[in-house]
Amino acid sequence: MLFGKKKGVFGLDIGSSSVKIVELDGKSNKLNLVNLGFENLPNDTIVDGQIMELNAVSEVIQNVCGSHNIKSNEVITSVSGHSVIIKNIVLPPMSIEELEESIDWHAEEHIPYDLSEVSLDYHVMEEDEETMQVLIAACKQERLDNIKQAVQLSGKNPKIIDVDTFALQNCYEVNYKPDESQVVTLLNIGASTMNVNIVRGGTSLFTRDITVGGSQFTDILQRSLGYSYEEAEAVKRGATDAVENVEETAIEPLMENVTEMVAMEIQKTFDFYRATTEDDEIAVEKLLLSGGGSKLSGLKEDLAEKLELPVEVLDPFKEVSVDTRKFDPDYLNEIMPEMAVAVGLAIRGAELK
Fold this sequence. Notes:
The chain is of the alpha/beta class. It folds into two domains: 1-82 and 141-176 and 319-353, ATPase, nucleotide binding domain (Nucleotidyltransferase, domain 5); 178-314, 2-Layer Sandwich (Nucleotidyltransferase, domain 5), CATH 3.30.420. The protein has helices spanning 54-67, 96-108, 141-153, 164-176, 214-225, 229-236, 248-276, 299-307, 329-335, 340-351; strands at 10-14, 18-27, 30-40, 46-47, 50-51, 74-79, 84-91, 118-127, 132-140, 157-163, 183-189, 194-200, 203-210, 286-290, 311-313, 320-321. The strands form four sheets. It has a six-stranded mixed beta sheet with strand order 10-6-1-2-3-16, with helices on both faces. Helix 1 (54-67) crosses helix 3 (141-153). The two termini are 19 Å apart. The model has no long low-confidence stretch (mean pLDDT 87).
């Protein structure tokens, strides 16, 4: 399920604070935007990746599909967080049949859950005469069932459940067409989780999901300065005029504390990767930001300074043809950072239409 391809489906990204939908057609070298939808979820609808209010999520999915006239009943959605385990493993050369028969045994060494509790999939990344590099992905079955139930309640059919990290990489590959030697870090900052993927060309070298996100910035402003949720959200994005008598001198150190934590977690990821690789010459060239948390005022510049890396905002529509008569360019630019995972999911459905 995690790696399979289906056709005639749209991308559905159920984040912890919003639902995003993207529908594309065409091939990966010539994609067209057909439909796009975005709607916020009520607070605490999703907690720690778990959907707590199934009816609320299904209602938002129905609303978005209805308001944007999305006809397809089949969707590709995705998971992330601590319930998902992704590992790159190196095995001796073997046939696909032998790998199929032995994958559970190999996975037991790397998956910290009972295999009876997870859905497991794998993909052969590279192979030569001496080794076979295999990417394995596992997700707790209860987490998959939770997402499937919410989608089915909306009247849609979840044909594929992907992984946020892979969807983000798919979006990057199609839009940036990297050469095989280029090493970048893809960082998707959601409300409660950051997805990190170190990629060389089209190969994922190291992935990590971190339970830090944009909500940490909101929370610290609410706790420390007594702002409402709406006020804190506005202030963290730079709209200080949304709050009366705002104390900008008090805001800056609070935001700096969380930015420092984000930078430390990214640096830890780089350190983890270096500790597991034998190739000392691989160096990250730049970082591409996406997700709602990436819209935080000054974050791109702060991360560039702290990590000593060029930082750019990933454009999920860079190579997608967009009819500006149908889609407002200003609105598209506003929600662009949040749409990367949904675009990556939609690409998989469009490729085989």
